[in-house]
Write a structure and sequence with these properties.
Radius of gyration: 15 Å
Number of strands: 0
Helix content: over 70%
Structural class: mainly alpha
Shape: elongated
Keywords: Membrane, Transmembrane, Transmembrane helix
Strand content: under 5%
């Protein structure tokens, strides 16, 4: 299960980095007067990143099937974010 926790932890960390990039792009866009990601997109990125990190912390403290279920949840959250905010 170490591999599963490591993979979901990497995804959660990637979501945090992505949220920081989106927030930075929104701030730069607002300062320079060009369109950037809107408040809805920023909110989604922050919410999903926070949820994934919380789920990962839970997974790191538990053992057994809970680890796998939370890893699938983190992967699903990342997929949902990328599908709704980046793909469409």
């Amino acid at each position: 299960m170490k591999v599963v926790r490591g993979l979901s932890g990497s995804i959660a960390a990637g979501l945090v980095v992505l949220a920081c990039v989106v927030v930075g792009a929104a701030m730069i866009g607002a300062r320079r007067g060009f369109p950037g990601p809107g408040a809805e997109s920023v909110g989604w990125h922050i919410a999903i990143a926070a949820t994934a990190v919380a789920a990962q912390i839970y997974s790191d403290r538990k053992r057994g099937a809970a680890t796998f279920v939370v890893a699938v949840f983190v992967l699903g959250a990342a997929t949902l974010l990328l599908w709704t905010q980046w793909w469409i």
